[in-house]
């Protein structure tokens, strides 16, 4: 029975190790904001961004490296999945690592990263933002200061079948009327992204904004879903599911599922991001709608809707040792020449107003005009330092209502409570 | 008992302790240390701006009866439900597979390889494959002619998780049980036959009791595995429609929302749950798993 006494030895060993751990600092070491003494330091830097099969990013980095042999940029690969990119960056920042100097961050993370002290304030003198469109620029601000510079932007758009509909609907009522055409052709009428993930938060915010409401106030401190406007927005989605305007399958749609359904000819109208236009309008494998795709602003309750502003920003790590170089590189990436490459090579939407008016580009990319209009009316997603919690709250409250359990009134009440709770955790 | 034997025994005990020490040290390092670190972290708050403060057992209170109790208990119930259903089905399917393979006269090795394929596919890859099959226009709906929204409603989503997990892990159970079947001496069946036992009686009176040790090991493995189920629901539904397991909830909060303190409390609770279940199970079936004779 002697071996039974061994657990005593085990406890001792564990205790010893625990002491070592305690000496090494067991207490959690999150966010102590580093001294904000402006940006400093020059030298080689790293840029963390998603892999880019087009080769455009490499081209941009090479151009920079040729011009700045002493301040070369090395690419670090970032997951193309938003959640995973967030996780990787959070781990890097929590470890106060200087491995990442410039990072591509989802525009909705800006308040969180700034509040945690992970990304450095970018003074106006460091990066010239004069030519950047105001809406995307606002997503890089937190408490009145700039913490990130928009790299590329995104706005929700309405895609429609030009062979079935001559003029796109401007209001939700018009959209529902046009559904008769969908019914006659035995296809679904309208879809967005309604699976339980961040995309649902975007679609709900967009519907609420398009009815004249908002999810949170401008300061990001108060839930504002207890308004008739918010109710109207949620009602549009809930009732569209109920009356079949939105096909039932759309409850499982993320961006790509909805795009495939549209390109497979199963939908008359689709709410999606600008990237769909090139894919859907050109002939390709599995594309049954080539040459029959139109793009228009999203419809709203009474008049044009308010598309949500997506996009990704560029941020400079608080722990970077070469922040001045980082700021120069950020400025380089948002300069006209590089933004042009962003559009033509990477296929992303630039943040400079002038490119949307460039005659040559507009000829080559006819959707730019429509996109510019959408960007003019676009509203940023709810700004909160607890985006992940807020988004989860919106998803949980809205999803059940879209599935048909509970009324829009119940859903809005739940949304208000849940979002208030999430904001309390900021 | 003579003094020499006592000394001998003491020396045996010491050398046993000495031999075990390196293992225990490694265990303490790779299991004990993270565990204690998690417990320590779980006693701190998660402010977004500012320094974490010591909050005692607040995080546990929050999960067990506080503001987030609803989420925690629903995840616990989901995890428990999945575990019961999944283990029961895997045992049934695994036993059927094992019996089938055992009675094969030829091609045993081939059958074993075929059965093992799902187990060899990484769970993440398998789940993505099933996700395609379960999509609204996918092969599952095409074959059944139904228009089920597999990932869009509670019942189907839970069923889908169970189907994937059973498909993936029943072969593992089958293999463990097959090994057990092969240790049953043929004479026992002969003897039972002579005594006039029919096929069903031989199965219930010889096969099943003799298979009990192997079954106990398989069930323990599977229960522990199922209680920490993460990858299938994470990829298939991301926890939507009543498929949020404890591990998934912990990951969403600790990693997704960077709530390290609360997330550590959740992971500690999950650990305690699994630990207690394992302990209870081993106590209940004890000697069999330890390899001793009852």
Please supply descriptive tags for the structure shown above.
A: 426 residues, alpha/beta, D-Maltodextrin-Binding Protein, domain 2, 2 domains, four-stranded mixed beta sheet, 16 helices, 13 strands, disordered N terminus, B: mainly alpha
Please provide a brief summary of the model.
The complex is a heterodimer of chains A (426) and B (294). By secondary structure, chain A is an alpha/beta fold.
* Overall form of chain B: flat
CATH superfamily of the largest domain in chain A: Periplasmic binding protein-like II
Q: What amount of the residues of chain A lies in strands? A: 5-15%
User: Strand order across the biggest sheet of chain A?
Assistant: 2-1-3-12-6
Query: How helix-rich are the residues of chain B, as a percent range?
Result: over 70%
What class, by secondary structure content of chain A?
alpha/beta
How helical, in percent, are the residues of chain A? 40-55%
- Main pleated-sheet profile of chain A: 5 strands, mixed
Q: Overall mean pLDDT score of chain B? A: 90
Radius of gyration of CA atoms of chain A, rounded to a whole number: 24 Å
Proportion of residues in extended strands of chain B? under 5%
The tally of helices of chain A reads: 16
Secondary-structure element order of chain A, N to C: HEHEHEHHEEEEHEHHHEHEEEHHHHEHH
How far is it from the N-terminal to the C-terminal residue of chain B, by CA? 27 Å
């Amino acid at each position: 029975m002697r071996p039974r006494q061994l657990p005593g030895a085990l406890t001792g060993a564990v205790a010893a190790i625990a002491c070592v751990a305690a000496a090494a600092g067991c207490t959690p070491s999150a966010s102590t904001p580093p001294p904000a003494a402006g940006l400093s330091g020059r030298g080689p830097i790293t840029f963390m961004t998603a892999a880019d099969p087009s080769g455009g990013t490499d081209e941009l980095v090479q151009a920079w490296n040729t011009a700045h042999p002493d301040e070369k940029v090395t690419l670090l690969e970032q997951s193309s999945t938003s959640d995973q990119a967030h996780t990787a960056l959070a781990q890097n920042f929590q470890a106060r690592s200087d491995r990442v100097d410039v990072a591509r961050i989802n525009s909705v993370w800006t308040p969180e990263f700034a509040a945690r002290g992970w990304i450095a304030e970018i003074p106006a003198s460091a990066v010239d933002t004069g030519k950047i469109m105001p809406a995307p620029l606002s997503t890089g601000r937190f408490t009145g200061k700039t913490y990130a510079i928009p790299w590329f932007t995104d706005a929700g758009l309405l895609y429609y079948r030009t062979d079935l509909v001559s003029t796109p609907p401007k209001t939700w009522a018009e959209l529902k009327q046009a559904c008769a055409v969908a019914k006659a052709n035995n296809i679904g009428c309208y879809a967005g992204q309604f699976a339980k993930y961040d995309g649902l938060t975007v679609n709900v915010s967009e519907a609420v904004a398009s009815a004249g409401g908002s999810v949170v106030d401008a300061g990001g401190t108060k839930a504002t879903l207890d308004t008739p406007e918010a109710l109207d927005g949620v009602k549009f989605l809930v009732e569209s599911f109920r009356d079949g305007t939105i096909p039932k399958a759309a409850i499982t749609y993320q961006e790509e599922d909805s795009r495939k359904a549209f390109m497979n000819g199963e939908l008359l109208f689709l709410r999606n991001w600008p990237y769909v236009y090139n894919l859907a309008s050109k002939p390709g494998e599995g594309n049954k709608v080539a040459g029959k795709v139109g793009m228009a602003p999203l419809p709203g309750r009474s008049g044009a809707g308010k598309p949500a502003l997506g996009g990704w920003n560029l941020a400079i790590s608080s722990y970077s040792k070469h922040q001045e170089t980082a700021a120069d590189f950020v400025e380089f990436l948002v300069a006209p020449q590089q933004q042009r490459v962003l559009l033509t090579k990477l296929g992303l939407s630039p943040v400079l107003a002038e490119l949307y008016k460039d005659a040559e580009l507009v000829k080559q990319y006819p959707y730019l005009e429509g996109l510019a209009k959408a960007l003019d009316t676009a509203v940023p997603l709810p700004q909160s330092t607890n985006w992940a919690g807020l988004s989860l709250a919106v998803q949980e409250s809205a999803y059940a209502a879209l599935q048909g359990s509970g009324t829009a009134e119940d859903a809005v009440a739940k949304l208000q409570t849940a979002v208030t709770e999430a904001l309390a955790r900021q | 008992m003579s003094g020499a034997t006592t000394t001998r025994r003491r020396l045996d005990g010491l050398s046993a302790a000495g031999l075990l020490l390196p293992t225990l040290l490694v265990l303490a390092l790779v299991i004990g240390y993270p565990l204690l670190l998690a417990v320590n972290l779980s006693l701190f708050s998660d402010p977004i701006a500012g320094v974490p403060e010591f909050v005692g057992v607040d995080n546990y209170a929050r999960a067990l009866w506080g503001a987030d109790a609803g989420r925690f208990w629903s995840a616990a119930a989901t995890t428990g439900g999945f575990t019961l259903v999944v283990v029961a089905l895997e045992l049934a399917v695994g036993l059927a597979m094992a019996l089938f393979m055992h009675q094969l006269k030829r091609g045993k090795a081939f059958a074993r390889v075929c059965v093992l394929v799902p187990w060899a596919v990484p769970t993440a890859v398998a789940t993505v494959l099933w996700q395609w099959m379960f999509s609204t226009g996918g092969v599952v709906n095409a074959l059944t002619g139904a228009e089920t929204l597999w990932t869009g409603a509670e019942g189907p989503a839970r069923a889908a998780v169970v189907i994937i997990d059973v498909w993936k892990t029943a072969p593992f159970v089958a293999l463990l049980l097959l090994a057990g079947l092969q240790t049953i001496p043929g004479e026992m069946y002969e003897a039972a036959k002579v005594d006039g036992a029919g096929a069903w009686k031989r199965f219930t009176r010889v096969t099943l009791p003799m298979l009990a040790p192997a079954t106990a090991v398989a069930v323990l493995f599977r229960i522990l595995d199922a209680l920490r189920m993460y990858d299938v629901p994470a990829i298939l539904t991301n926890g939507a429609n009543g498929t949020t397991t404890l591990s998934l909830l912990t990951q969403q909060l600790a990693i997704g929302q960077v709530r390290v303190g609360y997330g550590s409390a959740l992971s500690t609770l999950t650990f305690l749950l699994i630990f207690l279940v394992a302990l209870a199970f081993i106590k209940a079936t004890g000697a069999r798993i330890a390899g001793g004779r009852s």
